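Reminder to self: tokens first, then the designed residues, so the page reads top to bottom the way the pipeline ran.
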């Protein structure tokens, strides 16, 4: 299974292309270019045949786990199937060759897609206005918090802090800090949800916002959300919604109706655009009426049957992204929504919840379920009971690779010891879910009977356990032929 570097393949003098003879006069490069511009040694380029190139890159493309090849139950990430039709339509020439400076009247179709996508998202979330500019969820958080800051400053009071539960995604406190706020963490209650008394204790006139994910990162629905919203608003603070878990709610309940003032969407999670490997993503931010004047420019508006980029917004926080955001991701989300329709989106969420409940229910006897309530679209188990055999959650995750599954999210949320966070999504068949459950049960048995097998896993992948920190901190990006290093 090991794949050499392309530099290590081939033979000196071997070529992948043959260029036809021409009748042009042959020139020596030394005669045309200044000596200073010439390299002293030949570049060490690979010398390979066409089929060597094809096989090399085809094999490389198959070394990783991906949604197209493997079940990928990465909690909090909604790794659902990405419909090919969306990919195909987004790459139509009319879209892919657009220039962002083309005049409005020549790009009415593109503006219409953005305008309508915004309308759909407002309808799904229960909001009044939206920006599509942010590049991802975390960027949406920052944008949303800047809107909140602009809102408070406009009212003449700056406010200094944002309250966040300890189960929050790490981007939440980071975004608060970036937006100039102090992130104040509150401990979750025994039930894994917001502790109302602790929240009440922290809420004051300095509170700019309360930042919540619903369902939360344990996959639990915050049942007291209406009371939380009322408390938050009673001190003049706003309620920020981290919409990463919207796959549990579509067509069933709307964050805007629960009392959220701002919500970011992750189009690359809920709305089936591909993600991972660094993007591109898209994190639109929807708001209630009071926050609309502060939205980034330009806002796409409809006037006299035409679409316009509206820059005339004196209270706007400005731009958060060059041009208008990641347009290709918007097209894919737009197509997905149009394809599913209102009824389809509701079924997406119902099936996402059903799949998660099925998997968690089958596994909770063998793996602990620390917050033992039926989860929404994802659930968080704990591998802590296997510690007595010297097996950690990391070992369980690595062993899953041998069984052909991408591991779930592990060690998040932080409030669950040895967390295993499973999000199966609605696009998987029952057979796949059953196979995953079977593998998880087998691994639990192995943990007791042969812990070494887990500790040395994975056994079947091209590379085994990597020093992930070293790989990130000291990457070797250059191959030196003479030293034979790679
Ligand atoms: C994914 C996620 C984010 C961040 O979104 P990105 O698009 O990855 O920037 C924030 N909060 C939660 C709960 C998430 O799952």
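Designed residues (486 positions):
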């Amino acid at each position: 299974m090991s794949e050499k570097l392309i530099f290590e393949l081939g033979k000196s003098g071997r070529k992948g292309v043959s260029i036809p003879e021409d009748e042009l006069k042959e020139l020596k490069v030394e005669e045309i270019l200044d000596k200073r511009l010439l390299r002293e040694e030949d570049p060490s380029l690979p010398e390979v045949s066409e089929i060597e190139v094809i096989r090399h890159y085809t094999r490389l493309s198959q070394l990783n786990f991906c949604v197209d090849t493997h079940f990928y139950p990465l909690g909090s990430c909604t790794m659902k199937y990405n419909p090919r039709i969306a990919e195909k339509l987004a790459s139509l020439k009319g879209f892919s060759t657009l220039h962002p400076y083309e005049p409005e009247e020549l790009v009415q179709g593109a503006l219409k897609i953005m305008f309508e996508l915004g309308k759909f998202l407002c309808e799904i979330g229960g909001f009044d206005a939206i920006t599509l500019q942010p590049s991802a969820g975390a960027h949406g958080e920052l944008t949303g918090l800047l809107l909140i800051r602009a809102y408070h400053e406009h009212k003449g009071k700056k406010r200094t802090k944002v309250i966040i539960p300890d189960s929050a995604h790490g981007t939440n406190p980071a975004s608060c800090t970036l937006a100039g706020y102090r992130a104040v963490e509150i401990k979750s209650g025994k039930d894994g949800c917001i502790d109302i008394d602790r929240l009440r204790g922290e809420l004051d006139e300095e509170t700019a916002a309360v930042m919540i994910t619903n369902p939360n990162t344990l996959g639990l629905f915050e049942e007291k959300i209406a009371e939380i919203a009322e408390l938050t608003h009673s001190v003049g603070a706003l309620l920020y919604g981290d919409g990463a878990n919207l796959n549990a709610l579509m067509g069933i309940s709307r964050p805007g109706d629960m009392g959220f003032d701002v919500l970011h969407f992750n189009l690359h999670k809920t709305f089936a655009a591909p993600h991972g490997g660094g993007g591109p993503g898209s994190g639109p931010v929807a708001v209630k009426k009071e926050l609309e004047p502060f939205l980034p420019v330009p806002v796409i508006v409809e006037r006299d049957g035409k679409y316009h980029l509206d820059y005339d917004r004196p209270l706007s926080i400005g731009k958060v992204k060059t041009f208008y955001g990641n347009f290709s991701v918007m097209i894919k989300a737009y197509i997905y929504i149009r394809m599913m329709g209102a009824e389809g989106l509701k079924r997406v969420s119902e099936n996402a919840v059903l799949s998660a409940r099925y998997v968690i229910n089958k596994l909770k006897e063998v793996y602990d379920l620390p917050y033992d309530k039926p989860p929404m679209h994802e659930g968080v188990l704990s591998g802590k009971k296997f510690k007595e055999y010297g097996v950690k959650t990391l070992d369980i995750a690595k062993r899953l690779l041998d069984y052909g599954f991408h591991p779930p999210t592990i060690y998040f949320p932080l409030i669950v010891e040895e967390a295993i966070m499973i999000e199966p999504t609605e696009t998987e068949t029952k057979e796949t879910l059953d196979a995953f459950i079977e593998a998880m049960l087998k691994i639990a048995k192995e943990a007791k009977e042969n812990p070494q097998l887990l500790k040395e896993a994975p056994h079947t992948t091209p590379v085994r356990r990597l020093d992930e920190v070293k790989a990130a901190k000291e990457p070797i990006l250059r191959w030196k032929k003479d030293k034979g290093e790679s």
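The two ends are 18 Å apart (CA to CA).
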